[in-house]
Amino acid sequence: xxxxxxxxxxxxxxxxxxxxxxxxxxxxxxxxxxxxxxxxxxxxxxxxxxxxxxxxxxxxxxxxxxxxxxxxxxxxxxxxxxxxxxxxxxxxxxxxxxxxxxxxxxxxxxxxxxxxxxxxxxxxxxxxxxxxxxxxxxxxxxxxxxxxxxxxxxxxxxxxxxxxxxxxxxxxxxxxxxxxxxxxxxxxxxxxxxxxxxxxxxxxxxxxxxxxxxxxxxxxxxxxxxxxxxxxxxxxxxxxxxxxxxxxxxxxxxxxxxxxxxxxxxxxxxxxxxxxxxxxxx
Length: 282
Prior knowledge:
This protein is an alpha/beta fold. The chain has helices at about 40-45, 50-55, 70-85, 95-105, 135-140, 145-155, 165-175, 175-185, 190-195, 200-205, 210-230, 245, 250-260, 270-280, and strands at about 1-5, 10-20, 20-30, 60-65, 90-95, 110-115, 120-125, 130, 240, 265. The strands form two sheets. The protein has a five-stranded mixed β-sheet, sandwiched between helices. It has a five-stranded mixed β-sheet with strand order 8-7-6-9-10, sandwiched between helices.
C-alpha cells in the first residue's frame, strides 16, 4: 500500500492506494514545517483513525508540501512520519515538485502554484531547479489566497471597499477591527486566517473589485516569478496548480497573454495526478 499526500498551509489531501485500488481518501489540516514541529505532526497522525488503521500496511509514503523546501524542514516531516509509519519508506518533497509531476508529464516547463500561497520554478523534465522565489506568506505569495486575503482585509479596514461589496463582506463575516488584528498579529498561524477568505472571493469573482484585485495579484506574480524564469529558460510551456489558478483561470489566461504567455495545464488538486503517477511506479 502507498500513501500520497499533497499539503498546502490550510489543508493536506491524503490518498491511500493498494495495487491501483483507492483504499481511502481524506483531508487533514495542512502540514507546513514552517509552522509545525515534529511533535505536532506526530499528534496529528496519531489522532487520525484512517491512518491508525492502515499504518502498518503502508510501505511507501510520498509527501509533498508547502514549506518543505530545505533538507532541514523536510527532515522534520520525515522524522515524524518515520515514527508513525514503522514499515514505510518516506519520501518528502516540495509542493513545486508535486505541481511539476501533476502538470508537466516529465517534459521541461515552467510551473506555477497559485493556491493558499504562490511560487514558481523551472522543471527540467526530471526535477525542479531551486530558486529564491519562495519567501513565504509575509514577504511573498503574490496573487495567492493569502495575498488576496491580506489585500481584502486591508481595504476593509481602511474603508476602501466599494459600498455594496463592503456590505456583502459585513453580512458574511460581521468582522471587527480588533478581531481581525488579533487574528493577524497574535495568531501563531495567521496564514490560515488570511487564506480563509478564498471561498468568499470565489463566490464573488464577478465583482469588479475582485476582478481588479486578482488581476493586480496575477500581474505581480508574473513580474516577480515568471518573467525572470522565462528570461533564463525561454519558450517553455507554462502550467499551473492550485485553487486560485483554477477559480480565476480566465483572468489568469488574460494576464498571461498580456505578458506573451499561453497557459497550458491548470490542475486544481495535484493529488489525483500524483497518485496516478506513483501508482504506475509501484
